[in-house]
Amino acid sequence: MWIDRSVHTEYFRNVKREQRDKVRRENTRKRLLDAAEQVFAEKGYHEASTSDIARRAGAGQGTFYRNFSDKRAVFEVLATRLVESLVAAVNEVELRSPTNFAEYREASVLASRAVAHAVARNRVLVQLILRDGPTVDREFADYVEQMIDQFAQIATHYLQQAIAKGFMTVGNTNLIGQAFVGIAMRLVHLLLRDRLPGADIDQLVSDAIDLAFFGLGRPDNERGKPGATPPAMENCARPA
């Protein structure tokens, strides 16, 4: 059987060309996103322009518009990328299914620490989305709320699992899930504004989880028991 080798050669050349073009497009898009994050952080969403972003990325305006329709589209991709990185941080934690209350608390601490460290790694982007996201427009403000609600839903899901397994007895799981996220958002706010100098992230997470699990009460001098005084909270400066 006769085979025209020139056809095969041309085919593989085209495949390699397409692969190179794909890699180049992905690199260009990433460069634009990284540049956008820097420009938005420096100038704010409303003062930044597409030309600022293209210039920072070392690209032309045409290149920008071949990848994004406008700066809002870039901002939305950055927000989505942030959420994906935070969710991925939780998924990367190898958690076995808890069999008792202590294991459930430990799993909560590990997952929460993973998110906290992901927030620290993405400090600039987190500040950017929380600061400017609600001011872009009503639709984007709703999008930011949905992002936050997503984590409240995750908390609610695990609460419901704990109740089903008999580890906890709480009332409105949706409300408690929202309260957990409220505590987390306040801690993120303080950390990003450097209002908890010298605070240890892992310790803060443990203390916040203990507050959620055990509530308030007189300490019995044993850490991890109901009413134990959270040490990191003792070190936080009180308002003047």
How would you explain this protein's 3D organization?
The chain has 240 residues and is mainly α. The chain folds into two domains: 1-68, Homeodomain-like (Arc Repressor Mutant, subunit A, Orthogonal Bundle); 70-235, Orthogonal Bundle (Tetracycline Repressor, domain 2). It has helices spanning 5-43, 50-57, 61-67, 71-92, 101-121, 123-136, 138-164, 173-192, 201-214, 231-235. α4 (71-92) packs across α6, α6 crosses α7 and α7 (138-164) packs across α8 (173-192). The longest helix is centred in the N-terminal third of the chain and has 39 residues, at 5-43. It is globular and about 65 Å long.
List keywords for this structure.
240 residues, globular, mainly alpha, Tetracycline Repressor, domain 2
Give a quick precis of the structure.
The chain has 240 residues and is mainly alpha-helical. It has 10 helices and no strands.
Write the layout of secondary structure elements.
Layout: H1 5-43, H2 50-57, H3 61-67, H4 71-92, H5 101-121, H6 123-136, H7 138-164, H8 173-192, H9 201-214, H10 231-235
Helix pairs in contact: 1-2, 1-4, 1-6, 4-5, 4-6, 5-9, 6-7, 7-8
CATH topology of the largest domain: Tetracycline Repressor, domain 2
Number of separate domains: 2
CATH homologous superfamily identity of the largest domain: Tetracycline Repressor, domain 2
What's the CATH class of the largest domain, please? Mainly Alpha
What percentage of residues falls in helices of 4 or more residues?
Answer: over 70%
Radius of gyration: 24 Å
Runs in which pLDDT lies below 50 for 5 or more consecutive residues are: 221-240
Strand/helix succession:
HHHHHHHHHH
Q: From the coordinates shown, what is the CATH architecture of the largest domain?
A: Orthogonal Bundle
Strand-residue proportion: under 5%
